Amino acid sequence: MPTASKKTIVVVGGGSGSGATAARTLSEKLPSAQITLINPLPYAVSRPTIPRMTVSDDNDLIETALIPYDKLFKNSNGTFVQGVVDRIEANQKGGVVFLADGKQLPYDALVLSPGSLWEGPMDIPDDSTAVKEFIATSRANFKKAQKIVLVGGGAVGIEYAGEIKDIWPSKEVTIVHSDKALTNSAYSAKFRKNLEGSLRKRGVKIILEDFVDEIPPPGPATIKTRKGTVIEADLVIPTRGPRPRTEFVAKSLGADTLDEHQQIKVKPTLQLINHPDIFAMGDATNIVEQKQVMKANAHAAIVAANVIAYLNGSSALKPYKGSPEMILISIGKNAGQGFMGFFGGITVGDWFVKTIKSKTLMVPMSRGYMGYK
């Protein structure tokens, strides 16, 4: 049984598949340690639900997909602190996390899971008093608009298109995507073509190998793509990839802690290069793989094991070896396409994706990570 008695562990970022999972595991496996989880909101937002949640009120996601931390910890050794990290003071062993409100939290081991910064309706506010109004405004914008342009044809753009067409089949939806096919080359050409076919059957227009450089505010706009295509729109939504939420890391530990994409540089053990007592996981790391909840959950298991080993003085930490690329993309409640990177790549269609993801958006699984049955 791990000991690491009377040690203090601070986890920054409480995503249901990442920081919260690591905190829950550490709470269970280190009952004598003190675990503190910091998050700006008093609940984890199940991110796969955001397109459906912000398009329409035809769901219960505000009640089920904003998951409180009250059942997270397995033992009485866990504490949740609502706040925003301002900076970290890292010493040779341990350090202090300073919050924007002045609170100071010392640590023997620190886990960074800050996640990403998004645009448009994916950018759920950090202010809990503003979240429901933000969602209501987004829903009203989608309901009012007849011609909607989605800038970015990755998973987020595709899922927004599917949710819009589910509720309003007659609305005109256009995706503008920079690559020669939807998503990216991490996935097979067959899978990418299947996505395009599924969307076109629903009447979604797709413009490939082109860009929209400026996103107008909500409301009617005439946009011109980089290649000169003119599109009349009532609503233009950025559905491009996010950027890491790592400014506080560079501010605290130096710009060389991050790579050129502002991702946290980590060793295979998910420790920071020059800080063996600081671990990082999730979207904000420079691990070369697609940024997904499933990947972050795998990081959480490695980080929890390695934090325990580090605090017990062991040098036998586990490396994160990655995993095959897999993705399930919902196209509304009853359809979708999936890819599994086994045996050269396996594609799956509507029935499989509906059963695993589209119908529930994996909310029961996310709630399970947070201690809810």
CATH-level-4 superfamily name of the largest domain: FAD/NAD(P)-binding domain
CATH architecture of the largest domain, by name, is 3-Layer(bba) Sandwich
Ranges where pLDDT stays below 50 over 5 or more residues in a row are none
At the fold tier of CATH, the topology name of the largest domain is: FAD/NAD(P)-binding domain
Number of helices, where a helix is a run of at least 4 consecutive DSSP H or I residues: 10
Walk me through this protein's architecture.
The protein is an alpha/beta fold. The protein has 2 domains: 8-118 and 242-311, 3-Layer(bba) Sandwich (FAD/NAD(P)-binding domain); 120-241 and 324-369, FAD/NAD(P)-binding domain (3-Layer(bba) Sandwich). It has 10 helices and 22 strands. It has helices spanning 19-29, 50-55, 61-64, 131-144, 155-167, 189-201, 247-253, 293-311, 350-358, 363-369; strands at 8-12, 34-39, 43-45, 66-68, 78-82, 85-90, 95-99, 104-107, 109-112, 116-117, 147-151, 172-177, 205-208, 221-224, 230-233, 235-238, 243-244, 271-272, 275-280, 326-330, 336-340, 346-348. A hairpin with a 5-residue loop joins strand 14 (221-224) and strand 15. The relative contact order is 0.17. InterPro entries: FAD/NAD-bd_sf, FAD/NAD-binding_dom. Keywords: FAD, Flavoprotein, Oxidoreductase. GO terms for molecular function: electron-transferring-flavoprotein dehydrogenase activity; flavin adenine dinucleotide binding. Belongs to the FAD-dependent oxidoreductase family.
